[in-house]
Amino acid sequence: MKKHTRREFGATALSVIAASVLPAPFVRAADKKYDPGASDTEIKLGQTVPHSGPGSLYGVLGRVGEAYFQMLNDKGGINGRKVNFLTMDDAYSAPKCVEATRRLVEQEEVLALYGSLGTAPQTSVHKYLNSKGVPQLLLNTGASKWNDPKNFKWTMAGLPLYPTEARILAKHVVSVKPNAKVGILYQNDDFGRDFLGPFKKVLADAGGKAQVIMEQTYDLTDPTVDSQLINLSKSGADVFYNITTGKATSQSIRKVTELGWKPLQLLSAGSTGRSILSAAGLENAKDIVAIRYNKEVGVPRYEKDPDVVAFEELRKKYLPNIDPDNTIAFAGYGQAATMGEILRRCGDDLTRANVLKHATTLAGFHSPYFLEGINYSYTPDDYTPMKTLYVSIFNGRDWELSGEPMTE
């Protein structure tokens, strides 16, 4: 992507020219406000995602972001400015995330970061970005820590918060299996642990007849999760809460079938992408229960949906090597469109403070990725991305929604 020099001919120079040819009352350049990463011609954004390593499945988020902003640039950009989007590889590694983020802030001087992925990697740059006053928006993680506007006002999640998701799934378990014996497999980091407390509390508040009887953990570097699944299958659990990501999700779904274990399966929403389920075998994912808030691509139900059609047009033109049923790519499309909307609302005030202002007042905005009835709920005092979600069941081909959405 083309490199740009930093504002050598930006707002200051243009205001001088305008002042030399127009009477003072008509000088408009002075109304423009810029921070690093913005000028009369450019808006520079950054992101870190795993383009390599154990989380490389999610690298498509960055490629879709590049394609989306290239599409906008081909149409004239945002408010007349071209978007220079830099997506960098952090390999889902905290040290690499720190290195890449510092480069984006200190060398590239981006206006803001959006759509970066992973609880652990993003935790490693959380305090740094807030100390610098750089927006860290629409994170691809739903950790509860991102909802702390009092202490970390520059950071906002982009996914349903994990405690919100866990509480709704626990209420579902209590309603359909009041005496459930639950086995849990979770990623051994902040991502995994953020689901546990809220899930267990709902079970306890319901009287404690439904209980967690075994917990197993795995690390991202583990080659398989087979031993953990064998232990859970022998535990007597009749509910399996699968709090995994990427290849571990596909492996665990497939292993449950291989073991002949038939629990009620719960899956974290971030791992319900079509590519993950396809790798597991769609037939093996049948009857899995998960929170839903988004449309699918590559399924008949949404093939005529205007937002899905628009994504497909983008994919064909700019990303022909990405499968048409890649829901992770569609998620990236929705977040890029949301970031574009925030920048559009900023107008000519492209300061980091104004970017944050419009991100925190996005309540009511409907992403093209969202199901009907789901909107962002951000306010300046509550960074919960969305409070209304569906419970749904995978029928082997598509997700069947549970009637009306549920609000926490």
Please give a quick description of this structure:
The chain is an alpha/beta fold.
Write a structural description:
With 408 residues, this protein is an alpha/beta fold. It has helices at 11-21, 60-74, 94-107, 119-123, 126-132, 162-176, 190-205, 226-233, 246-258, 274-280, 306-318, 327-346, 352-360, and strands at residues 33-34, 42-49, 82-89, 112-114, 136-139, 155-157, 181-187, 211-218, 239-243, 264-267, 289-292, 349-350, 388-394, 399-401, 406-407. The strands form 3 sheets. Strands 7, 8, 9, 10, 11, 13, 14 and 15 form an 8-stranded mixed sheet that branches. Strands 3-2-4-5-6 form a 5-stranded parallel sheet, sandwiched between helices. β10 (264-267), α10 and β11 form a beta-alpha-beta unit.
